[in-house]
Fold each of these.
Amino acid sequence: MVSIGKINTLRIVKEVDFGIYLDGGKEYCEILLPIRYVPKNVQTDDDIEVFIYFDSEDRIIATTEAPYAQVGEFAFLEVVDVNNTGAFMNWGLMKDLLLPYDEQTHRPEVGKSYVVYILQDGTTGRPIASMKIRDFLDDESLNEFKVGQEVSLMSANKTDLGYQMIINNTHVGLLHQHEVIRSIKHGEKFQGFIQNIREDRKIDVCLHLKPSEKTAEITDLILYKLKANGGFLNLHDKSDPKDIQKTFGISKGMFKKALGALYKQKKISITSDGIRLL
């Protein structure tokens, strides 16, 4: 069965001058892969991975190019045009992805990027985008998660408590501010862990499970800041916690632990006026 808006593995049924035709099953019969996308050394009856969508004339078509995200996934996409139909977003293919007006939470602006969910339109069958991300997140079933599990994360929103994260394209969780030791961009994707599943069914996530892993990242950050500032910073283990938070975005306790590690490694010296790179 062919899945629109996703990568499929399809069999080559025949070759023509302008491309190859793929087996689209009873529903779609034969699907064209234009000649510019045909890999070298393929032949009839070979299986090939292709992305299936609709071209500018709404004909079903295949490509070996991969979009930034598929149907059923969240993505951070840039708006390239807005007209009477809706907004159009660059998702890595020749034909831009439509964000219809009725799937917008506010009017998007050309040149700006937004977190959207990609779904298949119920009327046309075409892949479209939606800004209504909460409609596509599961707030009920948590059976697939356990504390300590590694998950994929995507930054969806900044809050007073930290960052709202999309987990595995299915759930939402919170990355608390005190767990963040580097700047996180809107729409950024990375790996993390389930830290806690609370009684109110809310999920907390973190970037590190082991304190040693977190300390290693902080020491790298301190060394980077030192090198960027000529090898000296006027911060040390007795500095005001607010100054440490402002410079590194971490607590004083985390900072002191990282300083101790760097001092033992003989990478820094600690004086009354700050720390110096050795």
Amino acid sequence: MPITAGPNAAGPNTARPGSIAELKAVAQPPEVRGRRNAEHWTASLYLRRLSPYVTWVLLKTSISANGVTGLMILTGWATAAALLIPGIAGAALALVLGQMQMLVDCCDGEVARWRRTSSPAGVFLDKVGHYTTEALIPIVLGIRAAGFPFDTPDDFLWTTLGLLLALVIVLNKALNDMVHVARANAGLEKLADKQGESEPSQALVAKLRRAARFVPFHRLYHSVELTMLVFVFAVVGLFIGGVLADRILLVALVPLSMLALVGHFVAIMASKRVRS
């Protein structure tokens, strides 16, 4: 009879799950599936239905949860590298790899929960994976927009825009982590991952935030959405030229990212997340 890895059990669990249902009960508890911010929409839509089967295979190996996170990081970097392939081929490969990265991202936590090996190192590596991937994709988009070979100094405009977009995306991601650091340094308790914690207390900001949900451009800067956009514009590029399509996308993303950054900052300052 299989040993069930209960959430309150002590010590690492070396047993293997006896069934997918047993694995799901431990690796996908309601508090995980119900998280408001920590789950990407692709996970809620379909990846969490696939991930237990991949986790099942991983648990038959000796790979650690941090090792799985390492695979996630490498998959993310490969996603960005795929965009170095010109035209729709690179965009299609990046689209597939972007989904694979999110699938592996689901699995590392499931392996850690089953084996009871969750650690700060795993959280840190997860952050490294997402920060670096979401910085590398816009950098490579700038290279795509510049075309091959580069003409200097004219094409430096596009690579510079790619770097600028990467910087803004990283800053936007860092704002959420800055909130946690600020609360920890102030001796406040950790924020619960639920709706009310991030709702702005000022009426005007709250209305603007709700309005943004109808045009959620602020959600375009995750690796999944970025690879989707690059693929869509690569299809458009079949008709207007790939380099031109990449340039149009890059020019549109840069100002929208700045608007998202400012809006995110204002929403945080207007919420109780940074209030004692």
